[in-house]
Amino acid sequence: MRLAFILSEIGSGLRRNLSMVISVILVTFVSLSFIGGAALLQMQINQMKDYWYDKVQVSIFLCADNSGAQTCAAGAITDEQRSDIESMMDSPAVAPYVDSYQHETQAEALTHFQDQFENSPIVDTVTADQLPESFRVRLVDPEKYEVINELFSSMEGVDVVVDQRELLEQIFSIMNVASLVSLGIAGVMIVCAVLLVATTIRLSAFSRRRETGIMRLVGASKLVIQLPFVLEGVIAAVIGALLASGALWAVARYFIEGHLAQQYPGTAFIASSQVWVIAPGLVILGAVLAGIASMLTLRRYLKV
Question: Reading across the β-sheet that carries 98-104, which strands appear in turn?
Answer without folding.
Answer: 98-104, 134-139, 58-62, 158-163
